[in-house]
């Protein structure tokens, strides 16, 4: 049975942990506000440039740019976005499970070759230890996230796709919905595709393009991919801080409950010790009287 000193020491330790989790929650909350503002600001631009490309694109032009062509899929690149650090609840676990499910249930049964590009240290460490095929990684980008990070990552993706290193790129990430809710998304990055609902919105107005419709589309497609990658990075970053804030809040609540339970245990043990001492004194007094 634990002594009073052991219980006091454990209470002190849990109180210290509670202070740390409270501080981490405050830090995550401060960073989340900035990250949330960034992702909300990036969404309209990404949506607008996507709509612009879709508006200009015709069936004839769809077959003139490599970034739009649907090849026979043999090699797939899976881009997985996780955090660089832990203590963010099930944020990383859910993403890794979804990526493994994609590989083992969708790609391998179809006898497709796959490789991984890991953005974030947690995902890279997970797949490296399990001998998955990793073609590249980007670690530490979320520490000081900049648009240049999106440019370099998207350039690497476009270059590999154009060289034929892979025929399709799928991104698995957490989309930010709210502070307490993030949604796992599988999104096809390359080749660029638009759903049927977006295609029906195309205008029938006959515009005059300068220098030309194809030239404009060719210049817009890389910008479209860059903006989408930037949005994806911001979505994952905001989702991480939301998950971390929620996890630290839960940890603080659990610490309070544990402290309350330990204090009850301490008081019971202290009461039992006092009762035992009183009984020993009374027994000793009775024994001396009898003598």
What can you see in these coordinates?
The chain has helices at residues 4-56, 59-62, 91-107, 121-129, 147-163, 196-199, 213-290, and strands at residues 75-81, 113-119, 134-138, 168-178, 181-190. With 291 residues, the chain is an alpha/beta fold. The chain has a single domain (23-246), classed as ATP synthase, F1 complex, gamma subunit (Pyruvate Kinase, Chain: A, domain 1, 3-Layer(aba) Sandwich). Strands 3-2-1-4-5 form a five-stranded mixed sheet. The protein is elongated and about 115 Å long. The model has no long low-confidence stretch (mean pLDDT 88).
Name some characteristics of this structure.
single chain, alpha/beta, 5 strands
Name the CATH homologous superfamily.
Answer: ATP synthase, F1 complex, gamma subunit
On the 0-100 scale, what is the average pLDDT? Answer: 88
In the CATH hierarchy, the architecture is 3-Layer(aba) Sandwich
Neighbour order of strands in the largest sheet: 3-2-1-4-5
Derived structural class: alpha/beta
Helix and strand run: HHEHEHEHEEHH
Strand content: 5-15%
| Domain module tally | 1
**The top level CATH class name:** Alpha Beta
Shape: elongated
Distance between the termini: 36 Å
Unreliable segments of 5+ consecutive residues: none
| Contiguous helical run count | 7
Radius of gyration: 29 Å
DSSP helix fraction: 55-70%
Largest sheet: 5 strands, mixed
Query: And the CATH topology?
Result: Pyruvate Kinase, Chain: A, domain 1
Question: In total, how many beta strands?
Answer: 5
Task: Spell out the blueprint of helices and strands.
Layout: H1 4-56, H2 59-62, E1 75-81, H3 91-107, E2 113-119, H4 121-129, E3 134-138, H5 147-163, E4 168-178, E5 181-190, H6 196-199, H7 213-290
Parallel strand pairs: 1-2, 1-4, 2-3
Antiparallel strand pairs: 4-5
Helix pairs in contact: 1-7, 5-7
